[in-house]
Design a protein that fits this description.
The chain is an alpha+beta fold. It is about 35% helix and about 25% strand. A hairpin with a 6-residue loop joins strand 7 and strand 8.
């Protein structure tokens, strides 16, 4: 009798712990992921969101950076950097700034955060106006809706707002790494 009671208690405890472990796991449903694809014959860094694929950066320059940094290679590397910063919780804003004497675009927690090596998304051409380049690279439909902020003199994009409101693209062809 004691054995049956003990077995019942242990079974209940195991079921309870197992159920608790299942429910306490973080949910990844609805999380965004970043990847590189071709859209209208142009490499584009996209965010896969619950709504669909949102274009983030359109890679328009294919010949400025030396090999192997083609537009496709930059797109793939930048998608990884977006994902790393997103996973780390540092991709609340996309800011422009200077790092090591170069104009850069970086992830940030606040719209006035300085760029660092850890938050760097990509480097711009020498002599580039970072704000103007960010506006040109980001999806124009999002920009037309006012998602670029220039209140402090530097460009800043609210990532959640951008990903929630910019129209999705369904006709994309992922680029293999």
């Amino acid at each position: 009798m004691k054995s049956k009671v003990l077995t019942g208690l242990l079974t209940g405890l195991v079921v309870s712990i197992g159920t608790s472990a299942i429910f306490s796991q973080p949910s990844h449903a609805g999380n965004n992921s970043f990847f590189c694809a071709v859209l209208n014959r142009q490499p584009v860094t996209l965010a896969r969101t619950p709504r669909g694929n949102v274009p983030v950066v359109r890679w328009v320059s294919n010949n400025y950076f030396p090999p192997p940094w083609t537009a496709e290679k930059r797109c793939q590397e930048v998608a990884k950097r977006f994902q790393r910063n997103y996973d780390n919780g540092t991709l609340k804003y996309i800011n422009t700034g200077r790092l090591n004497g170069e104009s850069v675009v970086c992830a940030a927690i606040n719209k006035d955060d300085a760029c660092t090596n850890r938050t760097l998304l990509f480097t711009l051409k020498r002599g580039s106006d970072a704000d103007a380049t960010l506006q040109r690279l980001m999806d124009r439909r999002g920009l037309a809706s006012g998602y670029i902020l220039s209140e402090t003199g530097s460009g800043s994009v609210d990532v959640d707002r951008y990903l929630d409101d910019v129209p999705v693209e369904d006709n994309v062809s992922p680029i293999s790494p």
